[in-house]
Amino acid sequence: SWEWIAKPLFSLTPLSEALTVYTDAGRKSHKAAVVWRQEMGPWKTQLIQGLPQDSLQMLELRAVIWALQTFNEPLNIVTDSLYVVGVVARIESSAIKEIDNKWLFSLFV
C-alpha cells in the first residue's frame, strides 16, 4: 500500500539557496513595500498602494502575496507581522471559504 507524504512549502528555518525579501507596510501611508537584492546586485523595491479602508494586516499580507506571485524561486520572506506569519504557516492545509470581504477573499484564491 502506498501512502502520500505531503512536502510542506513553508519552513521556519531559512533556506540557504533562496532569495530573501523583506516586507513591511505603513498604516498612515496606506502602502506596502517589498525589498530584495539578487546576487549582491542593487537593492530593488516594489511599492504597493493600498486603499484607505485597508488595515495594516491586509497591507502586510498584500506585500507577501506580491512576493510569492512575483518570484518563481525559493524565498525567505522577512516580515514583522505576526498575522502574516500565522496566515502563511496555515494556508497550505486550509480550506478557503468565501467571506463577506471580497478583496480579502480574492487574496487567498
Automatic annotation (TrEMBL):
Keyword Membrane: no
SUPFAM superfamilies associated with the record: Ribonuclease H-like (SSF53098)
Residues annotated as signal peptide: 1-18
Residue span, RNase H type-1 domain: 15-109
One annotated GO molecular function: RNA-DNA hybrid ribonuclease activity
Entry keywords, A to Z: Endonuclease, Hydrolase, Nuclease, Nucleotidyltransferase, RNA-directed DNA polymerase, Signal, Transferase
PANTHER family, sorted: ENDOGENOUS RETROVIRUS GROUP K MEMBER POL PROTEIN, RNA-DIRECTED DNA POLYMERASE-RELATED
Protein name in UniProt: POK6 protein
Lineage: Eukaryota, Metazoa, Chordata, Craniata, Vertebrata
Gene that encodes the chain: Ervk6_0
